[in-house]
Amino acid sequence: MEIKPQLLGMEPYQPGKPIEEVKEELGLTVVHKLASNENPYGASPKVKEKVQEVLLHPEIYPDGYAAAIRNKVAEHVGVREEQLIFGAGSDEVILMLCRALLSNETNTVMATPTFSQYKHNALIEGAEIREVPLKEGKHDLEAMLEKIDEKTKIVWVCNPNNPTGTYTTTKEFESFLERVPKDVLVVSDEAYLEYVTATDYPNTIPYLDEYPNLMILRTFSKAYGLAALRIGYGIGNASFIRSLDPVRPPFNTTSIAHQAAIAALEDQAFIQACKEKNRQVLDDIMAFCEQLGLSYLPTETNFILIETGIDGDVLFDDLLKKGFIVRSGKALGFPHAIRVTAGTKEQNDAFLQAFHDCLEKRKTLSQG
Ligand SMILES: *Cc1c(COP(=O)(O)O)cnc(C)c1O
Q1: pLDDT for 85-95, tens place per residue?
Q2: What are the backbone dihedrals phi and psi of residue 108, each rounded to the nearest 5 degrees, phi first?
Q3: Given the CA of residue 36, which atom of ligand 1 is nearest to it?
Q4: Does residue 211 contact residue 185 with C-beta atoms inside 8 Å?
Q5: Whose CA is nearest to atom 1 of ligand 1?
Q6: Cβ 167 under 6 angstroms from ligand 1
Q7: Which end of the chain is more exposed for a tag (fewer CB within 10 A), N or C?
Q8: What pLDDT shows up at residue 67?
Q9: Which residue numbers delimit the Aminotransferase class I/classII large domain (predicted)?
């Protein structure tokens, strides 16, 4: 067998460590996962009620067109149903875009560090990857524009950016969109939209009228708390979505996910409450960092990247032993940082205590 050559050096996605695995390995009874930006408050209680009915009929294929959730999302977002494409998480929409637009004769432009799946899927398609380092923690849109040439097919703007939490402003995004050639797809990945509080964060929906080369990605995995059910979507130009659709696997999103997402969208009070609690917890983390003189990047998400001056993997291990799974910054492009998801207040108070102890221990070790 001969696998595509570009696959040879590649690794599968490295997910956050699962809770059960850590419990078993370290003999811990309580483990908090603050690694994958999941919603610590779960999903709306209304979701659980709604999926019960679907669970009674697992033998029936889901609606491949996802009509019910399509109708709901179209109404929620304020677009036409034909402007939507659903995926098993927005991850699958990223995959579909790469599959449809990229080949070894093309290139794609993105920031670095940013969300890993743009590069991952583009590499599989054999495309050339053009990475532009973040500037002061943010997308350097000017430098990204310069990287675009006649072979560029997709340019990715992760907004807010994972793993930094930083965002591109309305003004910056508008000016970028105006100058990107019209035959290059601009992807605005808005996985953390529901958490954003900045007033100059762009509402990208109205741009769709003027820019058929804009694609917006959103997901039910983060604030909506449906990560296990795998559902996200893309919003774009109706005719572009139609040409993209053959790439989508049949029945790629499940009936359970459809019903759960409908119920989740109907409970906006839950989202609002999560957003407020998230901000308070982030405020606590930032106050902690300031007290200890640790630098961090301002975040519009439910996670924060903290520079500790300590090897990210070392601090990751130290925290793991205390029952906290975070992300080492090492694999994320920040070797001396950790990325932490904002948990509940209780989880976070315990985390900050453990974090404090770990920092003290490393300080003592380095002085000894
Ligand atoms: C989590 C995440 C996604 C995708 O999540 P899905 O579970 O596949 O919907 C996409 N983009 C960014 C930036 C993310 O952080």
Answers
A1: 999 999 999 99
A2: -140, 140
A3: 1
A4: no
A5: 191
A6: no
A7: N
A8: 97
A9: 32-355
- Ligand 1 within 6 A of CB of 89: yes
Cα 206 to ligand 1 centroid, rounded to whole Å: 23
Q: By the 8 A CB rule, do 192 and 219 touch? A: no
* Cα 193 to ligand 1 centroid, rounded to whole Å: 11
CA separation, residue 17 to residues 20, 23, 228, 326 (Å) = 9, 11, 15, 9
DSSP-derived pairing of the beta strands 32-33 and 107-112? unpaired
Q: 227 CB under 6 A from ligand 1?
A: yes
Collect the ranges in the chain with pLDDT lower than 50.
Answer: none
SS3 for the chain, per residue?
CCCCHHHCCCCCCCCCCCHHHHHHHHCCCCCEECCCCCCCCCCCHHHHHHHHHHHCCCCCCCCCCCHHHHHHHHHHHCCCHHHEEEECCHHHHHHHHHHHHCCCCCEEEEEECCCHHHHHHHHHCCCEEEEEECECCECCHHHHHHHCCCCEEEEEEECCCCCCCCCCCHHHHHHHHHHCCCCCEEEEECCCHHHCCCCCCCCCCCHHHHCCCEEEEEECCCCCCCHHHCCEEEECCHHHHHHHHHHCCCCCCCHHHHHHHHHHHHCHHHHHHHHHHHHHHHHHHHHHHHHHCCEECCCCCCEEEEECCCCHHHHHHHHHHCCEECEECHHHCCCCEEEEECCCHHHHHHHHHHHHHHHHHHHHHHHC
Nearest CA to ligand 1 atom 2: 191
pLDDT at 32: 96
How many CB atoms neighbour CB 357 within 10 A?
13
Residue 126 carries which side chain, given as an amino acid letter? G
Tell me: the pLDDT tens digits for 116-165?
A: 999 999 999 999 999 999 999 999 999 999 999 999 999 999 999 999 99
